[in-house]
Amino acid sequence: MLVYIVRRLVTVVVMLLVVTLATFAVFFMVPKLTGTDPALMYAGRNTDPASIEGIREKLGLDEPVLVQYGEFVKGIVAGRDYDDGVEVTHCPAPCFGYSFRTEQEVWPVLQDRLPVTASLAGGAAVLWLLGGVAVGIVSALRKGTVLDRAAMIGALAGVSLPIYFTGMLGLAVFSYQLGWTSAQYVPFMDDPGGWFTNLMLPWITLAFLYAAMYARLTRATMLEVMSEDYIRTARAKGLKERTVVGKHALRSTMTPILTIFGLDLGALVGGAVLTESTYSLHGLGDLAVTAIRGKDLPMILGVTMVAAFFVVLANLIVDLLYAVIDPRVRLS
Questions:
Q1: pTM, 2 dp
Q2: pLDDT by residue (tens digit) across 265-298?
Q3: Domains along the chain with CATH numbers
Q4: Is the distance from CB of 105 to CB of 95 less than 8 angstroms?
Q5: Residues with Cβ < 8 Å from 116, sequence gap 6 or more?
């Protein structure tokens, strides 16, 4: 088991290096190929050439590409100093640079937005995992019944309806008419009750889409597993149906569910753009949209790196859970 964990950790480190290289190439090399000068984006188009050259020297944009990449990685790990020959500006780790538009360090802005997105993604994940899997299991065990058909119709509606439609409908009914929630983010440490109450509607809106997909996936996987020989053998031995389903069938069903759950959760922590925009939640998704509109490359880069990190981390956790669920993984 220890060897398996170490091997997966090494793979994660290599993957993160690949992500940093790809991200650096997209945000620093591609603009040069298209004739865009990052120093000009920092300074603005009406800045004199001397100021642009000073910015280029301070940010190291006049250095060779490999040197720039080395400084970029060093900044993320150990921080970075920006020296223009007159003053030295220190950017502590993890340093993603400074925003083009606000001239703020990127990482503190990401830290301020991350709790909003993490709260949204975490709460919705609990709802869609429990609800989707439960509906899928019941639907598979009651195949062909009215309950099965009703569940699949609901799942089809959940997959088909866009988030901005269900979100605006929820706001119109539960916030504007009934006044049950304001759907405004409140920090958990300031008011746990308000945090939970105000995020319930965004959680349900986001979870409705994913729970529908998980219900369909769970139903299809469970139907396939229930037809396996070892399930018939377990029943032939006289085991209770609860034991057959819970101990044997469900354990095999969880493997593909864990796979897609890790990808979905990791991607959402990087920014649930539509949900945050619908409910005016100022998380990473909202920050990414604002940065893209303003062509703020360092801010876009920071959001991209954080999203990639959580996707890789989620996949690592899923791989470790594989080893817990399926002992054969530890031996592979």
A1: 0.80
A2: 877 876 678 888 888 888 888 888 888 887 787 8
A3: 2-91 (no CATH), 106-330 (1.10.3720.10)
A4: yes
A5: 185, 276, 281, 282, 283, 284
